[in-house]
Amino acid sequence: MKKLVILSGAGISAESGISTFRDAGGLWDKYPVMQVASIEGYEADPELVINFYNERRKQLLDVKPNQGHMLCAELEKYFDVTVVTQNVDNLHERAGSHNIIHLHGELTKVCSSYNPNNPKYIKELRPEEFEVKMGDKAGDGSQLRPFIVWFGEDVPRIADAAYEAEKADIFVIIGTSMNVYPAAGLLNYVPYNSDIYLIDPKDVHIETDRKITHIKKGASEGMKELMRMIAGV
Ligand code: APR
Q1: Minimal-distance CA residue to ligand 1 atom 15
Q2: CA of 64 to the centre of ligand 1 (A)
Q3: Cα(120) to centroid of ligand 1, in Å?
Q4: pLDDT for position 69
């Protein structure tokens, strides 16, 4: 089976009702990004940040995967698929994708504030635990914090993602403005003779001389067109 790697961003979840970051009215229009999505912001006001992610986490209870997510899962019938996502929602999981790498963490998980990547203290929250409070402790006694990669923090899974991109026969970029590194740099690992597709209703500036087939549609319609092009279905 050919290897197909998907790099997804907030745009794939837009049709599920989850705001993107940099579209008009996006999350970074409403919140000061460095206050709610950086390690300095967390250290300056942990309660504000914990509540910001509580709201985003609870929203997961009201949204569901859209056809874009579902078709990413359906591609597993035709290809060896790995989904590399910048998203912290669990919609790829709920759509049935099996091999998922979350580069920027996961909303449904919490971790230690001392050492966020210590697997011993990373915990999946049950829906009834979705409201994290100041004073909730990780196993090492530190404040429980969202298992999210903030600006200024390492992206531990980027090596795994690059390893997958190096093996991609087909690389699909969907719903990301390719603004944020190292995620956007994954394109540079894709072999030169591989096919690259972009699914996005807008033009996306991508620093590359590679040939990219741009399906200028939203996630659901774009994934349907991609399926016709690469799987003939
Ligand atoms: N279908 C597909 N793509 C869409 C749709 C849609 N229905 N609606 C919007 N888009 C596209 C936009 O045109 C844009 O190119 O999704 C992209 C969203 O870009 P961003 O809002 O910048 O989101 P993303 O690229 O995922 O941001 C990357 O930045 O703030 C950090 O950690 C955060 O993971 C995030 C990272």
Answers
A1: 177
A2: 18
A3: 32
A4: 98
Where does CATH 3.40.50.1220 sit in the chain? 1-16+65-104+155-233
Alpha-carbon span 217 to 177, nearest angstrom: 14
* DSSP output for 129-167: G----TT-B-TTSSBEEEEE--BTS--TTHHHHHHHHTT
CA distance 224 to 93: 19
pTM check: above 0.90: yes
Question: Do the Cβ atoms of 213 and 197 come closer than 8 Å?
Answer: yes
Distance linking the first and last C-alpha atoms of the chain: 16
Q: Which residues of the chain carry a pLDDT beneath 70?
A: none
Residue 38: predicted pLDDT: 97
* Region(s) of the chain under CATH 3.30.1600.10: 19-62+109-148
Burial 42-55 (b: 16+ CB within 10 A, else e): beeeeeebbbbbbe
Catalytic residues: 104
Ligand 1 first shell, C-beta below 6 A: 9-12, 14-15, 20-23, 26, 37, 86, 104, 175-177, 179-180, 200-202, 204, 218-219
| Residue carrying structure tokens 């092009």 | 229
- What is the DSSP secondary-structure string of 24-38? TT-HHHHS-HHHHSB
Assign domain 1-16+65-104+155-233 to its CATH architecture: 3-Layer(aba) Sandwich (3.40)
Residue located via tokens 């009702």: 17
Spatial distance between the Cα atoms of 205 and 19, rounded to a whole number of angstroms: 20
